[in-house]
Structures are given as C-alpha cells and as structure tokens.
Write a structure and sequence with these properties.
mainly alpha; rod-shaped
Length: 41
C-alpha cells in the first residue's frame, strides 16, 4: 500500500510540473506576442 502511495505522489508531482511548464510556456508566448506587437507599431 505504501508503494502505491509513492507512485501516486510521483504522478501528482509530474502533473504539477507539467502544469507549471504549461503556465510558463503560455506566459513566454504572451511576452513574445507583446514584443512582436511593439515592433509592428
């Protein structure tokens, strides 16, 4: 049972890391779009 708990914990960690990466990617793309719009003006 303890092993299953560890497996679940590592899975939730992986999901959390993935979500954080998505947030960062989204933020970076927003910054890139803003920079692009500034250059366009």
């Amino acid at each position: 049972m303890k092993n299953a708990g560890n497996c679940y914990h590592s899975t939730s960690r992986a999901i959390a890391d993935f979500m954080i990466k998505l947030q960062i990617d989204r933020w970076e793309s927003k910054v890139m779009i803003l920079e692009f719009l500034k250059k366009k003006k």
